[in-house]
Amino acid sequence: MALAYYCANCILYFREADLTEGRCPDCGNQVKPRVVIGGVVLGAEEDANSDQ
Ligand SMILES: [Zn+2]
């Protein structure tokens, strides 16, 4: 199990090590932690449906 961090602004996932002070390294937006099991991101559908 691992965590990925989703930026709704960039529509990208980042690893914790890629974050800048806990935020998206590209745009500085807040990211949402997501659990990744076997390469599958849980809650990804929810992210895709989000307008933010
Ligand atoms: Zn971003």
Distinctive features:
flat, 12% helix, Methionyl-trna Synthetase, domain 2, 33% strand, 52 residues, 1 helix, binds zinc ion, single chain, mainly beta
Task: Please give the structural blueprint.
Blueprint: E1 2-7, E2 12-14, E3 32-37, E4 40-41, H1 44-49
Antiparallel strand pairs: 1-2, 1-3, 3-4
The structure holds zinc ion.
Give the low-pLDDT segments: none
CATH architecture: Beta Complex
Name the strands of the widest sheet in spatial order: 2-1-3-4
Summarize the amount of helix as a percent range.
Answer: 10-25%
How many beta-strand elements?
Answer: 4
**Mean pLDDT value:** 91
Tell me the overall shape.
flat
Would you tell me which CATH topology applies?
Answer: Methionyl-trna Synthetase, domain 2
Distance between the termini: 26 Å
* Number of individual domains: 1
* Protein structure class: mainly beta
H and E string:
EEEEH
Specify the CATH class. Answer: Mainly Beta
CA gyration radius, whole angstroms = 10 Å
Oligomer: single chain
Largest sheet: 4 strands, antiparallel
Instruction: List the bound ligands.
Output: zinc ion
Question: Helix segment count?
Answer: 1
| Strand composition percent | 25-35%
